Amino acid sequence: xxxxxxxxxxxxxxxxxxxxxxxxxxxxxxxxxxxxxxxxxxxxxxxxxxxxxxxxxxxxxxxxxxxxxxxxxxxxxxxxxxxxxxxxxxxxxxxxxxxxxxxxxxxxxxxxxxxxxxxxxxxxxxxxxxxxxxxxxxxxxxxxxxxxxxxxxxxxxxxxxxxxxxxxxxxxxxxxxxxxxxxxxxxxxxxxxxxxxxxxxxxxxxxxxxxxxxxxxxxxxxxxxxxxxxxxxxxxxxxxxxxxxxxxxxxxxxx
Length: 255
Prior knowledge:
20% helix, seven-stranded antiparallel sheet, six-stranded antiparallel sheet, globular, 255 residues
């Protein structure tokens, strides 16, 4: 299986600390050696870095780790291939345009009979089950709305109904964002933590790294992280239940 990492914050924040822990799991402390990717949002734009090599050995990953890009929304993924070969086009996250927004998605798990889902104008570039069902989700939204919806809460509830359908095909743990909202859906393993004042220290599980967030933040900062498994050893992470979904906006859980 793969591992996911997402961040939603109310101020531009760098994810270098958590990303450093995730990288170790990509072929060093974990088996996810078949590629990695990360997407940062900056206003309406987003920038992505991907590499089909193991993140623990990737020079591109080291560049990202050492270059503190600040963003309010981030999705990252390390891959253990099961559907589709090890290649750049099969490396998550995947991005598509909908309603004038960049929608980015990453998936953990394996699905069966997904090709029975009919696609329209949205087609996958690679060969993974993950990208195929992402195209299906975007196509369903495109067919459901004649114009950009005003109530995004209802949109994400609709996406949750799509996720319930996909859950019947296998393991479907997902992160999805339009740059403003972050949605996560759990089938097996997904955890989240919200950091806000009073901030304290955090110790990574996979690397000998510790940071005191009190020195790096203000009292107004709110940052939520979502991960397949907790990344720190001295903080309380909330475990999601099977079939549960959450939506975060500016670091706060709203659904």
